[in-house]
Each structure stands twice: as C-alpha cells, then as structure tokens.
Design brief:
With about 130 residues, this protein is mainly alpha-helical. The protein contains five helices and two strands; from the N terminus they run H-E-H-H-E-H-H. About 50% of the residues lie in helices and about 5% in strands. It starts with 6 loop residues before the first helix and ends in a 25-residue tail after the last helix.
C-alpha cells in the first residue's frame, strides 16, 4: 500500500477480511472519501452490510478506534523515527503483530489472542 487508501484498496481489504472472518452486520467508519465512495457503498449494500458513519468532529462515536489510536501513538509513533516508507511499513507490521497476537489482553484474562499462544487443555486421565 502507498501513503493513501483508495476506494479500490478498501474494497480489496474488505473482501479479504470478509472471507477470513465472515460478513459483519455493519461497518462503522469515518466519512473519508475512500469509505464513502459509491463503489464501496454499493458493494457493501450488495453483500448486506449496513454502514454507520461517524459524524465529523465526534470521535466518541467510535471509542474502540480512539482507544487504539491513543495506544498506537503512545506505544509506537511517539517512539519511532520513521524516515522512510519501507521502515514505517516494517516497524508498523512488527508492532501490529505484537499488539494483535502476542501482548496480553484484559478481555482474554490477560492472555495473548493468538491461537498458538492459548494454553493447551489439561491431559485427561486414562482411567
């Protein structure tokens, strides 16, 4: 990906996510042109996904992303000097993997979310 997302980029990523995780009932996004483009809105309508747009200047309408943005800024952007696009991509990929797959999450009883990190079931007795 480049420095900007187009409607085509959004559609490509949504197809990947829907195939991997299933089709959601709705998607909440800001009012950026890549999300409000006719092609994106039309495709979402055809697959049965409702769109919920955040009002401009109302970040509290999507607390999850605002919380993530704060963590991303504090734990990554404020600590790294990103002097090339390649460096930004590599370091962002590493941080994202750590955030999504390794670090403990309170909602998971402070275990990491990656399947390979889950504790195995205790062995059953043969008796």
């Amino acid at each position: 990906m480049g420095r900007r997302f187009t409607a085509e980029d959004v559609l490509h990523r949504l197809v990947q996510l829907f195939l991997k995780r299933g089709v959601p009932a709705h998607i909440r996004s800001d009012n950026g042109p890549e999300f409000t483009a006719r092609a994106v809105r039309g495709w979402l309508a055809r697959v049965g996904v409702r769109t919920l747009y955040i009002e401009p200047g109302s970040p509290w309408e999507n607390g999850y992303i605002e919380s993530f943005n704060g963590k991303f800024r504090e734990e990554f952007l404020n600590r790294e000097l990103l002097d090339t696009v390649l460096k930004a991509r590599v370091l962002t990929y590493r941080w994202r993997r750590e955030y999504n797959e390794v670090r403990p999450h309170s909602a998971l009883n402070y275990r990491p979310p990656a399947p390979e990190a889950f504790e195995p079931l205790p062995a059953r007795s043969l008796n």
